[in-house]
Amino acid sequence: MYNKGLYQDWVPKPIQLLLIVLLLAVVMPIGGVYTGNISYLVSGTGSMTEYFMWANYASTIGMGACMPIVLRMKMRFKVRDKMTLLLVMLGLLSYINSTTYEPMIFVFSSLIIGFFKMMVTIELFLPLMAMMGNRGMFYGAFYTFVLVLNQISAYYAVDISIRYNWQQFYIIVAVGCFALALVHWLLMHDKYFALKVPLHYIDWLSTLLFVSTFMFSAYVFSFGKQQDWLHSKKIVDASIAAFVSFALLVIRQLTLKRPYLSFKIFSKNNVLHGLFMLFCLGMFLGTTSIQNTFAVGVLGYDQLTNARLNLLMIPGLILAGVTAIFWFKKEIPLKMFIFSGFSAMMGYSIIMYFSMVLEFNYDYWYLPMFLKGYGMCSLFISVWFYTLDKLEMDEMLAAIGLVLVWRTFLAVGIFSALYSWFQYRFQVIAVGDLAVYLDGMTITPQNVAGNMKTVQLNAIIIAGKKLFGYIILAGCGVLIYVFTHHFGKERFEYLRFIRVLTGKSVIARRRLRERKKLIEEIRDAAGPAV
Known about the structure:
It is found in: Membrane. This protein has helices at residues 13-27, 38-45, 49-66, 70-76, 79-99, 103-132, 135-163, 166-187, 204-223, 233-255, 269-285, 288-298, 303-311, 314-329, 335-355, 366-387, 393-434, 448-484, 496-502, 506-515, 517-526.
């Protein structure tokens, strides 16, 4: 007997919705590390920052590795058994992170947390999709909720780390997972979702090659600056290992009857253009490293104040979500919505370019962070919707892992690493240019320390302004590209009777829609998983 819901029939519907929201509130922000309190992890464990950046990337890689097999895992186990076990495992991993001082444990636990987290979240999207109906409206509501939740959780991770210690937040997360596991063991039904399917069709070697490809890549992005990129043998070896792993992964997919990944969707026009726009979004999201350097290094903000800046994005996130719901409800073409998102990101970059001065006031952050929040949320919703539009279930699930990793890891990781390296190089050049003022006639031995600090701060500002200047120039090209792109609009109109003759009958199309109803729900749910 099958049941496509989550809970027992006697559980009231409002309680079911409350439990789903509670699960989302606990599971969606969970990770091996939390970016806001990385500095406390560094000081508490005595390890380099790069290890925790690597662990942060590992969580996304774990989610991408799970995505191609998540449907088979969903249909293999009873929902109560699976959800309870996964929540217990997530709680145990969080507890392990709270007790360890070894950075590599954070890396591997983050990878496993991402893998398990994807299995949990896919269960929550289907009932929510059934309630919302419209895929675009669901994206608008869900992305807004998750992004707002991430900003709030990042803030409280820092707040709790300051009030108590960095271990305390992990313990709170672990307790929350254990409590939810107990509640869901009591309230969830004990039935399968659909026909039970075997697991022996899963190619675990391909999963291992997928993980190794991107974990080696994440090592390069995280440790590249610290080890001086190609001057380091470790970076060269990791780059070669990532390339070899990916080559073996591709070759293996060509020889399997049921491949773990499929590259067919990358020949579709909307997928290629969508990936390019996600790459451009990564260019803007990577500016977080420049912003943090300016806020902490120049303005002298503590970690809690710096985390509070992200809360200023919440009004922009909510506005983008409301706009998306209205946009999809009215079925307005996506072009101008995507254009507005990139325009908001351009506005953020322009304001930051002109505002990076030593006299920067905290009140000046409200407008740029509002624009950044609106741009990030609107582009996450609209570009992802456009990228996965009109894809078949088999095509989408077989390649969604690569798309997820591209959006959340590769695009942001590449630009974050580039910005970090260029900021260092530009800063060195700026110090050299400012050295003309460092002589005995202008700086006396008594005030040399204060003047050296001013020179250093100005060098950081100059490097940040240069980077934002290049981002603005590239952003102008992105806006031109979005404005001139057709976004799927037919360039030539055909007569209606030709379409009728070449298309399927009304009855056949109706049967096809009914058969794919569940498939489309699962496909749509895959979008917001990250």
